[in-house]
Design a protein that fits this description.
The protein is an all-alpha fold and 180 residues long. It has 8 helices and 2 strands; from the N terminus they run H-H-E-E-H-H-H-H-H-H. Strand 1 (68-69) and strand 2 form a beta hairpin. It is globular. Residues 1-7 have low confidence and may be disordered.
Length: 180
């Protein structure tokens, strides 16, 4: 670990905050944990983005509409199923470099996020996607689940990231105060 404090009058070694986060990741995240973390982040980001876009389309404040093919609406779970089929193909092929690759983990998270967002439609096989009953609670539950999953996957990493970030911010504030 690099020293955080320089000799009086000497310029402190400047280590970028993002570099410190990378170092924390190297110390705390095994390849499996990295893949899981990427999966959870991709799941949460995709789920949130899908919610945002569908609300924007339904509310008319986004400039585009639903995706259709031959006049038939394509639900985003279709794209999720395609993503999971691609991930399954990589897994069945068994190429170890590809199986643990962050892009495969991201594709899995994206696919599950797209499917989970339309779970009510898949469960009832009716377009009950916008039914008031339970929609908000499902949104909140899946959002909390994705954040919790990402946190629990890498607790020591997140604690070190928080500690490093606090130190960096404190040094930045102290340095700005000294320059005044």
């Amino acid at each position: 670990m690099t020293a955080d404090v320089a000799e009086p009058g000497a310029e402190a070694p400047r280590v970028d905050l993002v570099e410190r986060w990378r170092q924390a990741a190297d110390r705390h995240l095994s390849p499996t944990k990295r893949s899981l973390l990427v999966t959870w982040v991709a799941f949460g980001t995709t789920f949130g983005t899908a919610r945002f876009i569908t609300h924007g389309i339904r509310g008319g404040w986004l400039p585009w509409g639903n995706v259709t093919a031959g006049g038939r609406h394509l639900h985003h779970y279709n794209f999720g199923i395609a993503a999971l089929a691609g991930v399954g193909l990589v897994a069945v092929r068994g190429d170890e470099r590809a199986v643990g690759h962050p892009c495969v983990a991201a594709a899995y998270g994206v696919g599950t996020g797209l499917i989970a967002d339309e779970f009510a439609l898949l469960l009832d096989l009716q377009d009950v996607y916008w039914a008031k009953q339970g929609r908000v609670s499902v949104d909140v539950s899946l959002g909390v689940l994705s954040v919790l999953g990402a946190y629990l996957t890498a607790v020591p990493f997140w604690h070190e990231v928080a500690r490093v970030t606090r130190r960096h911010l404190a040094r930045t504030v102290a340095s700005a105060s000294i320059r005044r």
